[in-house]
Amino acid sequence: MDATYTALAHFAQTGGLLYFMAIFAGVIVYACWPGNGERFDDASHIPLREDD
After folding, report:
1. pLDDT in tens, 9-34
2. From CA 47, how far away is CA 43, in angstroms rounded?
3. Global pTM value
4. How far apart are CA 50 and CA 26, in angstroms?
5. DSSP state of 20
6. Band of residue 50 on the pLDDT scale cut at 50, 70, 90
7. 3-state SS, one letter per residue, for 21-51
8. Which residues contact 36 (CB under 8 A, 6 or more apart)?
9. How far apart are the first and last CA of the chain?
10. Which SS3 state, helix, strand or coil, does residue 4 take?
11. Which CA distances in Å does 45 have to 9, 21, 39, 41?
């Protein structure tokens, strides 16, 4: 029983690590994608806009 729990815990830890690494890599690729530069520049100026 203990070996099954240990194997399952190891699998869950490794799987979770790989999952979060993939999500992190996806966020980095999305943030650095050349087509998103204008959108991020526009969003960075939102706090400085004067509302009419």
Report:
1. 999 999 999 999 999 999 999 999 99
2. 8
3. 0.67
4. 34
5. H
6. confident
7. HHHHHHHHHHHHCHHHHHHHHHHHCHHHCCC
8. 30
9. 68
10. helix
11. 46, 30, 10, 7
Answer for the pair 36, 30: CB distance below 8 angstroms, yes or no: yes
> Closest Cα to residue 43, out of 28, 27, 31, 52?
31
Q: What residue has token string 């996806």?
A: 26
44 contacts: CB under 8 Å, gap ≥ 6: none
Task: State which amino acid sits at residue 33.
Answer: W
Query: Which residues, 6 or more positions from 40, have their beta carbon under 8 angstroms from its beta carbon?
Result: 31
CA 32/CA 26 separation, integer angstroms:
10
